[in-house]
Amino acid sequence: MDCNEIMVTMEKPERCQKCNGWNIKEDEDVLDTWFSSALWPFATMGFPKKTKELEVFYPTDVLVTDPDIIFLWVARMVFSSLEFVGKIPFKYVYIHSTVLNEKGERMSRTKGIGIDPQEIIEEYGADALRFTLTYLETQSQSFRLSRDRFIIGRNFANKIWNAGRLLFSYYQEKADFNNLAEKKIYDYWICELFNQLLRKYEFFMKNYYFSLLAQTLYTFFWNNYCDWYLEFNKERFKNKEKTALETSLEVFYNFLKILHPIMPFITEELWHLFNKEDVSVMEKGIPEPFIIPSDKKKEIYLCEELIALIKNIRNIRANFGIPKNIGLKGYLKTDKEQLYLFLKEEKEILKKMVNAEILPLAEDKKELKNFATIILKTGDLYLVVDEFFDLSKEKKRLEKEIAELEKIWKETLENLNNEEFLTKARKEIIEEELKKKVEIENRLKRLKELI
Questions:
Q1: Residue 395 forms beta bridges with which residues?
Q2: Digit-coded pLDDT (tens) for 323-332
Q3: For residues 191 and 251, is the Cβ–Cβ distance under 8 A?
Q4: Between 20 and 30 A from 360 (CA), which of 22, 150, 183, 209?
Q5: Number of structural domains, the chain?
Q6: If DSSP codes are grouped into helix, strand and coil, which group holds residue 67?
Q7: Is residue 102 in some structural domain?
């Protein structure tokens, strides 16, 4: 009868001390779990034989791991590789967040604590799972995870899918889009924003800032592309403007290419919906930046001013309780005649989105009564609200705007004071942050003077 007793000894014993049996076998697994795991980088490639895999793929580039096993495993892999192969096993080690449950406990399958990813995939989808975890990744800081948090990824996937369906309905009528109207300022605006996104994408990917990457992709697509650009284009789609459709589609295709690493399934599905070629979106690579004429690049601020105007008028309506069916008049004071001409050209957008008409300020604003002030980058707008005006509410609105701007200003300042950011970021990204800082400071100064 075999004995399962484990005995530790430096010399081979003649008999078992427990059962007195003589059929003793030495355990073949002479290393503990972590030390045997330390051989993984080169053992998987055929070491000690000089295999082609070892020659081509060793050392590897990146190890992604949890902070709790830096000493248990990562350090052991390093000194084992140096000892047996004479090389480090990997160039970089990415220490990711520790995912905790709602109570702040470390997830464990053996203890039954945690979230089953298969259940999340069934309920929310694989892309929602991937995007949410990327969005929440904090680089070595732990975060608490509940099932409800995957709504972030699910809603984003829905937004992308719905935008794709909207565009596809026009894509099917592409031949009928024969109105050859010229590009609008907001066509150049969305292309420039995408170029900025590409620069940040490269920086975030290179430096493993995955959370910032996910947040930037989210903001660009949801806030800029869908909420503004597609809204501006709806009337143009009805008018069968070829430029509007082509620009919308091109930006959408390029966005799918860079989103693919995080959300591979929905991007692949949408890619083949629009493109009949049997090539995966993964094989298309990173897109090239859009080429924007220098004179048009200088006019992009006009679109930014239009968006700021619409946002502020909406806030004023909500703040003073002004019904949407009541038309408003705003008087613009600016040194930029181009801004007024642009707003006049886009009067239908202002009418449709905020039911407002913008007029030039011909006389001193002191003659105006009961108005709310909107501070733009290149001018001021005095929106007449008549009997709805409330001075205390207007002051609170301006104070809220100041608080929001100060928050953005602090974040920008943190980046510009961060040595790592200044060392690694491309020149264009740093210039964008510096420009943003100056613009925010100017607006803050004017808002505080107004109060």
A1: none
A2: 999 999 999 9
A3: yes
A4: 183
A5: 3
A6: helix
A7: no
